[in-house]
Amino acid sequence: MTKSKLNKRYGKKIAFIIKVIVMVFFIMLFIRLFIFSTYSIHTESMYPTLIDGDQLLVNKFIHGPRFLFGTGDKKDAKRIRGIGSIKRNDIIVFNFPFRKGNARIDIDYNNFYVKRCIGLPGDTVCIDNSFYKINGTSTIYGNYFNQYLLSTISRKDLLNFCRDIETFPYDSFSCDWSIYNLGPLYVPKKECTIKLDHKNIEFYKSIINYETGRYITLKGNKVYLDSSEIGSYCFRHDYYFVGGDNVFNSYDSRYWGLLPEKAIVGVATHILRSTDPITNKYREERFLKALE
């Protein structure tokens, strides 16, 4: 075989290999953008369900993949409809909804959290003696054992190891909520209208500021959106109430409020792999463990 024929054959092989590499790259990119991604656990906020060193498989196809566009303060997201929807007790990965304080939702698309979905759009959430209650039912949501432990500990003893006892909206005039007792809190659903007053506006002002690009103020017992008095509001988006299984040490909706649908990345369905961060030992028993 002549040298020119050998070069031609090698050239075809190299071209084929390059095509395969490019094809694999785009397939992997497609999967990561539209179907699955991964998320690593570095905190104890979802203990005992998730532990430091777990790597989660996040399904984007259930709720629908998002596209991010824009830069800096102008960054936004659009979602393609998925094959299902978020359910109560699903473990979800999302972007933290408050980038610059709690006065207005401003999604931080570079900051990722993982929590359990407790309340869906349209639900009414309560914490009754440390236990989550949805729409007045007795169904268990979140980690029952940790909620039970919380119910047995006094406020005085809890201060020794709990993140904080007082909760959203941190306004004793409107309510006196804590991780022991919270609510009832209505979780906004798209196109649902509620009446506003000087008490419940504290629950929703960050949402209204976010949706309208304007600011809520309270003058006496009257609610104003910029200079216009309003007595009701129709929500433009869906929201969720999320909580960590470790009710003693989880920064979640109890502390910062409601999660906008646009912030959700996907549903964590399995532990892909897990490594002990101290010993670097592989945890075989957690490989591909389904999450409940």
TrEMBL record:
UniProt enzyme class: hydrolase
GO molecular-function terms, A-Z: serine-type endopeptidase activity; signal peptidase activity
Keyword Transmembrane carried by entry: yes
Alphabetical list of InterPro entries matching this protein: LexA/Signal_pep-like_sf, Pept_S26A_signal_pept_1, Pept_S26A_signal_pept_1_CS, Peptidase_S26
Gene Ontology terms: cellular component: membrane
Peptidase S26 domain residues: 17-270
Subcellular locations according to the entry: Membrane
Topology of the protein relative to the lipid bilayer: Single-pass type II membrane protein
SUPFAM superfamilies, A to Z: LexA/Signal peptidase
Keyword annotations of the record: Hydrolase, Membrane, Protease, Transmembrane, Transmembrane helix
Annotated GO biological process: signal peptide processing
Pfam family, one: Peptidase_S26
Gene3D superfamilies in the cross-refs: Umud Fragment, subunit A
Enzyme Commission number: 3.4.21.89
Positions of transmembrane segments: 20-41
Chief location bin: membrane
CDD domains in the cross-refs: S26_SPase_I (cd06530)
Reaction(s) the record says it catalyses: Cleavage of hydrophobic, N-terminal signal or leader sequences from secreted and periplasmic proteins
Active-site positions on this chain: 45, 115
NCBIfam families per UniProt: sigpep_I_bact
Family in the record: Belongs to the peptidase S26 family.
Protein name: Signal peptidase I
Name of the coding gene: lepB
